[in-house]
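Take the subject:
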Amino acid sequence: MASSLTKDSVRPGTPGSEKTFFGHPRGLATLFMTEMWERFSYYGMRALLPLYLVAPGGLHMNAGTATAIYSVYVSLVYLLALPGGWFADRVLGPRKTVAVAGLVIMLGHLCLALPAAASFFVGLGLVAIGSGLLKANISTMVGHLYKGPDDPRRDAGFTLFYIGINLGAFVAPLVIGTVGENVNWHLGFALAALGMALGLVQYLLGGRHLNPRSSEVPTPLSAEEKAATLRKGLIWLAVAAVFYGAVSFSGHFTLNWALIPLTLIGLIVPILVITRILRDKDLEPAERSKVSAYIWFFVAAAVFWMIYDQGGSTMSIFASDSAKNSVLGWTFPVSWYQSVNPVMIMALAPVFAWLWLWLNRRGKEPSTIVKFSSGLVLVGASFFLFLAPLSIAEGGHKAAALWLVAIYFVQTVGELTLSPVGLSVTTKMAPKKYASQMMGVWFLAVTAGDSITALLSNPAVGGVNLDRMGFVALEAALAVIAGFAVWMYRNKVKKLMGNVN
């Protein structure tokens, strides 16, 4: 990226350096590359995960168990963003926390690269923990590079950062997926470890360009709080160790002793967090009203992510068994489907940004509620479209790859309609007391959605075949009905939202 660094003749004194990255603080290049490599490792491994779980040369599980594991893993990544943010705010600060996160992620991928089932699940846990620590804090450091929210470069800086995310997500399945599927599964996971290692090295080398604020601990724990937190943590760890030790020694331990509790935690924690905020007596009536309105968006988002994230599990497993996976006679690895969404995001995001501004200037930009309901209807429509390749497969034929590409396209349009709007409305509707924590609450919608998928697909609980036409149609109908419900009650939600549009 050295060729893109130029002398800063416009804004001298940019934090950390006299150079800029496309006109932005030099530290953005460090964070851009860190996030790109981290997403490379994360999405590359995620593209392989469900395929490895069901493959005869992998763990050879049934589709239901594989989907449950995949869904619990994704839900944990977003659930752990909450304690990840707390850890940086109270213990290490964002800069050191991200360094620790990178190391934990790299070690996790190395565990996945070992050909043993036990180390594989340890690796999944480490990657989830590291991703939670990193996800909550690297965006905060991007914000630190700018001179407050009114810096005119701030939005463009986050846009560049977002490109880094999707660039890593696009390249990862093409590289890691190809090696994992065609050469060796564990070599693919090792490449994910290498990617995170490269990201960590350049992060440590480029750390001098970050704003000094990133090294600060905003609200450090007192000595008494540290002792109390450590004591509580050790007590819970001891309880878990004793419980699972007893279950293991009795010969009753199965994977579901871990999967089901984690699934339930993913459903219970979002409810507890939102309830605690809603019942906080310190909130003003207007703030409590906005939180009540936010519940509508949260539930709708959980339905959206429940369907959307099956693009990496249900649809991926379907493609490995029942799709042609070729274009014009050229066959490609199944994991390559996971590159469709990020490349479409990079192509369509600027179009949507321009479209909203164009409509706004004419006074015709859709409201937040209309955008949200459109996203739900679109993700429902994508699963109605999924019925076509499912029908072809049930007829004993292989579905064309373009059917799946079309489904991912519709889901991407739905994502661009709902996800950025959800992030924006979260910041607008957050009570002052919970200004930072509310972004973690938004991520909990992903946790809730994936936990529902895990509960349904787990053979020991729901035992639902998620790739059957009847259930796919039911999920599609649920999303469309939820979209229309949000739209039908828009006046009630608008009233609760107060001055937020």
In short: The radius of gyration is 23 Å. The longest strand covers residues 5-7. Strands lie at 5-7, 19-21, 24-25, 326-327, 330-331.
